Each structure stands twice: as structure tokens, then as C-alpha cells.
């Protein structure tokens, strides 16, 4: 276990360094004017250029710039918005909302997705199976921003079942979370179904049925558990997609989270704010993926003893 | 359901065609595809979309730039089936012309990603050793950045304005998506090449004195292409969605370029009063994505040797 953790950390560190370097190089060091598009529709004012040149050490050679930048990231300094406010403060006040939204979306996708997948999988070729296959196909092909606008117009404005925009209550996060989770929900349902169908053919399932175990126990305990391992992998890897989707969903439903900060930054053409906030999301994604990997070691004895 | 159909066909193949020459994997796949309804439906949609992208004039006689503000947001009528958008342009014409940007971004990005990813994967898989280690770590780095977030970073750094020529605006979106999109192809290619290069026919070719170049191009590549083709078909739809999402956010394609994403973003404010502005571009966009996903499913079924 300990050896596995060390090994994983060892593999992860170069990737994190490389990835952050990639982002940093993209934002500040590519040929051309690093200040193009960072200050709205006008060219950047002289004092902003000076402040940023100093803040990002743009006069130093690239590797030095990057090391200094990583130093400030590690000490919690994520740069400044165009107006000079600290990005870190802004992020701190916004991340709890995004966290709630994302967790709720994951809950929706896992609960509904697995339920749909199981219902489809236990009667393969039946009505429910076809219904789930067709509806997941539709969910996958409608982009999140279309689902969001449609859901907002239908359930929020027309039917009035949900608040149209975020009003600070948990309830107003439900519709956005369903929208955000809908794409992954379809994948979870399909994965669960495919694995369940596959595992239901396994020998140990036949044994369990032959022993006379009730069907509920055969499916629920013997088969489902094994079928869920790829689903867990998917949910972990999908977080990147959810964080990207959060930019769209928070923009549509006016939820004051990190995604909304990026959405507004884009509309105001404030590249500096956008890139700083996105960098933080990417870092969160990397760290969560590392944690998910470590979690496997806890869940799967084969890895633990390797 | 699938398996039943398949085994019936396998039976037929085993009996009827036993005497004829064995078909190649691609020929076999083509036979499978032609009889799959999923493939036929998606292929028809895609052919129509490509026709729309290449010669939009076939589908509409109006000019997409010919707009009359007095008609702004008028509902669909006999004269204008899809109604009018905010600028008073005929929405049907705008939607037809919008196919070009989506298809162009989808196809260019997919081709770019397939070529770059294949070359990297091939070099890493075939040569192995230190080159493989370096290339694989570089692939990991790019793989770790979620695609939409990464594309936002790139496009926020290189913003397009109204004055940017259309090809540049489209090129930026293609580059932004391609920059992070090639990694899966590289990984796929690397693992298949590693498998193929140990095959007997590769050893035989080497024994007969074939050089690296000939082995790679004549033996390894043709046999390693199938997974890449399958992935490319599916990911084309993903790129179309990402382009529309970026355009919706206001950071992808920009005004002079006609795009479904921009149209939907414009419709945002008027969903209640003019739902047609949201509906029609969304339907076209979703149908495009659906067609490529179905095509990808069909192609995967046809190419997947495990199902045979």
C-alpha cells in the first residue's frame, strides 16, 4: 500500500509540473503580445502591463518565470483580476458553490445512471432496455448548453417547478445539477448496463442462481458490485468534463461559482482572470484524480497487495 | 439483440462464402456496415450535412447576410419556415450556412488529431525505450488537461475579434481543440503498434530484409489503423459539441462566421419570447452530433474483432 502510494505520487509529480508549465507557457510565453485580449476590448493600459510584467516576471527567461510562478501558486497566490482584486480571494468566496453544484451533479449521475443501467440490464432487449438506450443516445447528443437553456425555459419559466436562476437556496441548485450531470448520467447508465449484461453471464452468477438465491441478491450483491468498478473509474475521470460543464451551467443559471467567474471573464474579454481561474480548476482536477487513484488502492485488494 | 444478428450472419458467412477468397478486415467491416440500419441512417444524415457545408446554395436561395432588422425575431411562417433571428436574418438560411463551420471544425480537428496522434503513438510504440518514455510522459501531460478548460485557456490567450478573417477564427478553434485532443489517438496507436510489431508477419518481413520504414508503412500501420478510425468517427461529434460550446461561451467562433453555437447563444435572452431562435439551430446541432455518434457505434461494431 505504502509503496503504491509513493509510486503513484512519483508518477504524478512530473505530470503536474509538466501540465502547469504547459498552461503557463500557453498564457504568458507564446510568441506574440502576451497582453493581447487580456484587458477587454481596448489595448492594455501601461500600468497594467507594468504590473503584470512585474507580477509574472515576464522579463526573466521562461524557466525562471515558471519557477517563480509555481512558487506563488504554492503559496496561494493565483494572480490578480484586471481590476486588481486577488484571484485567490475571489475563488475562495466562489468555490463552495461550485463544489455543491458538482457534488450534487455527481450524486444525480450516479444514482439515476446506475438505476437506469440496472433496469435496462436485467431485462436485456426489453422495453425498458430500449427506452434507456434511446434516451441516453438523445442525452449524449444534445449539448449541455442546449439542455440547460431548454430546462431553464421549460421547468423554470413555463412550469415554474424550479427557480429560474440561483437564489442562494440549495433547491435552486437542483435543476442546474441535473443538467450538468445529464451527459455523464447517460454514460454511467450505458456502462452499468453493458457491464451488468456481461457479468450476468459469468459462471459465479450461474452458481448463485443454482444455489437458489433470490434474484435481487444475485443482481444486487453478486453482479452489481463487480459491474460498478468501471463506473467508479469513469466518474473519477469525468470530473474534468463536469468542471468544464460547470462553466456553461453556472453561466446559464447565474450561479456565482468559479465557472461563472470564467464565463463572465470571457464575456468581458479579461483573459488574465479566465486563465487564472481555469488553471486552478485544472489543478483541482489533477489532485482529485490522484486521490481517486489512491482510493483504488483502498478499494481493490489486488492493487493494495501488488 | 446485436449478438443474435451477428451470429446469424457469421453462420451465413461460414457457409456461403467458404469457397470465396477471405475478405480483408476493412472489406468485412464494409459488408457489416452496409446492412446495419444505424449506419445507413447516420450516413444519410452526414451526407446531407456535408452537402450543406459544401454547397449551401442547394438548400436555400437566400443570402445569409441579407437581413432586415424590421423582421427581427419574427416567428416561423409560410415564407420563412424557421422564422427570423435577432438581426432579422432568415433563420433557415443561417442554420443551413451554419453547417459549414461545424463540419469544418469537426473534420479538420479530427484529421489533425488522427495524424499527430498516430505519428506520436507510432514512434513511441515502434521504437520503444527512451523515446517511448519521453513521448508517453508528454502525452500524459497533455492528457491531464480537460479539453474544454484547456481550449478556453488557449482561446482566451489568442482572442479573435470581428476583424479577424474567418479562416483564422476557425483555425484557432481547430488548434485549440487539436492541441489537447491528440493524446487518446497517440495512446491507442502506441498500444496497437506494440501488439502488432511482435506479430509473426512482421518478423517474417524483417527476416526477408525489409527496412524499418517499409515494415512501419506496409505492415504495422494498416493493421493498427482500425482502432484509430473507430475513435476518430466518435470524437468528430465530440469536437462539434466542443466548438458549439466554445462559440456559445463567446470564445470560439466569432460574428462574421455563421455558427450554430453563436446562434444559440444569441437566442439565450429570448428563449421565452422567440423559442424558434433556440430550437432550430439546436436541432441541427444535436442531429449532427447524434449522426456521428451513431456512425461511430456502427463502425466500432463492424471493426471490433471481439464481436466476430
Automatic annotation (TrEMBL), chain A:
Natural source organism: Jiangella ureilytica
Classification via Pfam families: BPD_transp_1, BPD_transp_1_N
One GO CC term, this protein: plasma membrane
Family per record: Belongs to the binding-protein-dependent transport system permease family.
GO biological process, one term: transmembrane transport
UniProt keyword annotation of Secreted present: no
Main location, first listed in the record: membrane
Classification via PROSITE patterns: ABC_TM1 (PS50928)
Keywords: Cell membrane, Membrane, Transmembrane, Transmembrane helix, Transport
Subcellular location: Cell membrane
Protein name: ABC transporter permease
Transmembrane segments: 12-30, 101-122, 131-150, 170-191, 231-253, 273-299
Domain ABC transmembrane type-1: 95-292
Automatic annotation (TrEMBL), chain B:
GO cellular component term, pick one: plasma membrane
Bilayer topology: Multi-pass membrane protein
Domain of life: Bacteria
Gene Ontology process terms (BP): transmembrane transport
Residue ranges of the region described as Disordered: 1-23
Transmembrane segments: 38-59, 101-126, 138-158, 170-189, 220-242, 248-265, 277-296
Key word Transmembrane present: yes
Start-end of Basic residues biased regions: 1-15
Ranges where the ABC transmembrane type-1 domain occurs: 99-296
Location within or outside the cell: Cell membrane
Pfam families noted in UniProt: BPD_transp_1 (PF00528), OppC_N (PF12911)
Key words of the record: Cell membrane, Membrane, Transmembrane, Transmembrane helix, Transport
PANTHER family: ABC TRANSPORTER PERMEASE PROTEIN, OLIGOPEPTIDE TRANSPORT SYSTEM PERMEASE PROTEIN APPC
Family listed: Belongs to the binding-protein-dependent transport system permease family.
Record-given protein name: ABC transporter permease
Annotated source species: Jiangella ureilytica
Amino acid at each position: 500500500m505504502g509503496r503504491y502510494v509513493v509510486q503513484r505520487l512519483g508518477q504524478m509529480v512530473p505530470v503536474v509540473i509538466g501540465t502547469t508549465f504547459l498552461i503557463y507557457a500557453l498564457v504568458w510565453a507564446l510568441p506574440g503580445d502576451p497582453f493581447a485580449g487580456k484587458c477587454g476590448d481596448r489595448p492594455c493600459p501601461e500600468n497594467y502591463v507594468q504590473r503584470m510584467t512585474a507580477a509574472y516576471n515576464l522579463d526573466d527567461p521562461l524557466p525562471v518565470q515558471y519557477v517563480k510562478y509555481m512558487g506563488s501558486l504554492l503559496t496561494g497566490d493565483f494572480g490578480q483580476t484586471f481590476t486588481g482584486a486577488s484571484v485567490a480571494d475571489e475563488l475562495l468566496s466562489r468555490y463552495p458553490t461550485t463544489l455543491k453544484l458538482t457534488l450534487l451533479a455527481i450524486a444525480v449521475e450516479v444514482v439515476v445512471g446506475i438505476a437506469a443501467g440496472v433496469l435496462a440490464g436485467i431485462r436485456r432487449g426489453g422495453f425498458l432496455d430500449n427506452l434507456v438506450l434511446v434516451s441516453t443516445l438523445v442525452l449524449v447528443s444534445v449539448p449541455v448548453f442546449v439542455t440547460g437553456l431548454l430546462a431553464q425555459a421549460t421547468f423554470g419559466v413555463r412550469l415554474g417547478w424550479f427557480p429560474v436562476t440561483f437564489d442562494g437556496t440549495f433547491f435552486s441548485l437542483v435543476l442546474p445539477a441535473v443538467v450538468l450531470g445529464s451527459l455523464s448520467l447517460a454514460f454511467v447508465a450505458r456502462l452499468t448496463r453493458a457491464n451488468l449484461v456481461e457479468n450476468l453471464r459469468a459462471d459465479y452468477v450461474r452458481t448463485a442462481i443454482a444455489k437458489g438465491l433470490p434474484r435481487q441478491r444475485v443482481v444486487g450483491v453478486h453482479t452489481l458490485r463487480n459491474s460498478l468498478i468501471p463506473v467508479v473509474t469513469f466518474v473519477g475521470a469525468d470530473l474534468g468534463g463536469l468542471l468544464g460543464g460547470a462553466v456553461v451551467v453556472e453561466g446559464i443559471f447565474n450561479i456565482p461559482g468559479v465557472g461563472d467567474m470564467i464565463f463572465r471573464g470571457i464575456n468581458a474579454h479579461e483573459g488574465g482572470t479566465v486563465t487564472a481561474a481555469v488553471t486552478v480548476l485544472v489543478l483541482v482536477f489533477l489532485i482529485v484524480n490522484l486521490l481517486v487513484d489512491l482510493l483504488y488502492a483502498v478499494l481493490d485488494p489486488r492493487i493494495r497487495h501488488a | 439483440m446485436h449478438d443474435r444478428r451477428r451470429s446469424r450472419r457469421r453462420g451465413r458467412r461460414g457457409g456461403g462464402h467458404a469457397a470465396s477468397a477471405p475478405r480483408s478486415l476493412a472489406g468485412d467491416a464494409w459488408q457489416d456496415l452496409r446492412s446495419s440500419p444505424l449506419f445507413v441512417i447516420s450516413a444519410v444524415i452526414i451526407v446531407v450535412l456535408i452537402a450543406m457545408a459544401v454547397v449551401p446554395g442547394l438548400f436555400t436561395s437566400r443570402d445569409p447576410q441579407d437581413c432586415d432588422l424590421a423582421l427581427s425575431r419574427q416567428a416561423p411562417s409560410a415564407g420563412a419556415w424557421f422564422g427570423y433571428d435577432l438581426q432579422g436574418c432568415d433563420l433557415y438560411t443561417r442554420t443551413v450556412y451554419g453547417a459549414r463551420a461545424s463540419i469544418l471544425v469537426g473534420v479538420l480537428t479530427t484529421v489533425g488529431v488522427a495524424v499527430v496522434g498516430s505519428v506520436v503513438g507510432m514512434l513511441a510504440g515502434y521504437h520503444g525505450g527512451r523515446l517511448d518514455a519521453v513521448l508517453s510522459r508528454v502525452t500524459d501531460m497533455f492528457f491531464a488537461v480537460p479539453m474544454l478548460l484547456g481550449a478556453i485557456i488557449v482561446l482566451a490567450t489568442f482572442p479573435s475579434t470581428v476583424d479577424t478573417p474567418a479562416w483564422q477564427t476557425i483555425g484557432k478553434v481547430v488548434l485549440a481543440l487539436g492541441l489537447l485532443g491528440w493524446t487518446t489517438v497517440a495512446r491507442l496507436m502506441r498500444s496497437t503498434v506494440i501488439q502488432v510489431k511482435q506479430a509473426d508477419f512482421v518478423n517474417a518481413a524483417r527476416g526477408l530484409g525489409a527496412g524499418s520504414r517499409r515494415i512501419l508503412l506496409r505492415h504495422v500501420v494498416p493493421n493498427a489503423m482500425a482502432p484509430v478510425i473507430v475513435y476518430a468517427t466518435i470524437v468528430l461529434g465530440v469536437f462539434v459539441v466542443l466548438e458549439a460550446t466554445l462559440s456559445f461561451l463567446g470564445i470560439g467562433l466569432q460574428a462574421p462566421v455563421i455558427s450554430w453555437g453563436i446562434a444559440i447563444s444569441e437566442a439565450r435572452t429570448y428563449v421565452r419570447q422567440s423559442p424558434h431562435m433556440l430550437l432550430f439551430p439546436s436541432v441541427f446541432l444535436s442531429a449532427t452530433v447524434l449522426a456521428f455518434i451513431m456512425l461511430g457505434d456502427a463502425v466500432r461494431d463492424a471493426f471490433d474483432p471481439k464481436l466476430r
